[in-house]
Each structure stands twice: as C-alpha cells, then as structure tokens.
Amino acid sequence: MQLACLGDGQGFKNGRHAAVFVGVTPKQHSSGGKVVMIGIDKHGGDKYLRSILYQGALSVISRLPVEAKTDKQQWLINLVRRVGIKRACVALINKTVRTAWALLNYRTEYNSQTV
User: Fold this and answer.
1) 61-74 pLDDT, tens digit each
2) Could you tell me the pTM of the whole model?
3) Any idea where the Transposase IS116/IS110/IS902 C-terminal domain is (predicted)?
C-alpha cells in the first residue's frame, strides 16, 4: 500500500474514514427504513491504489483452496459464495485498508497469517 496515501494514519478518525478516502466503501441510498447499498464510487479516492488493491484481492480470491485452512479463508470462501467474486474483492480491499490504517495509526507490526 502506498504509504504516502494514508500517511501515518493520524489524518483519519478511524479505519472507515481511510477506506472512504481510498474509495472502497459502498454508497448507501436509504429512505424510510429501507437500506439500499449501491456500490463503490469509482470517481472518488485514489484510482491507482484502488486498482492495485483490486488486482491483489482478485489474485487472493482466485487462489483460494477448496477447503479452508484458516478462519480468514473460510470467511472469504463463504463471502464469495454469498455475494460473488467482485463484491468479495471490494470487501477484502475494505478489510485490507482498515487493517493498514490500524497498523499505521497504532504503530504496530503486522502478524503475518496467510489468507
């Protein structure tokens, strides 16, 4: 992830704000208690970073095993079955950006567990 894009994480209130900045959160159109999620805004955020993250997420999803070995793999396999590959890619990108924000903001190291 481009460090210059998120900086040290202090510029964002939380991980969701960082994900909105990159442009990987779904738009919401709600009225009268009915929530409709439209999709991500492809015009806002960092297009280059979003495209690289999407390609990476697509690569991870395309290499998923049939039988999950970890909880993260099981989550991703279930998500792909439920919403499809493209939406699962966006969800994985969202999760990745939020994780990156937390690592930068709290100045911790990533505990590498394979997805």
Assistant:
1) 999 998 888 888 99
2) 0.81
3) 3-64
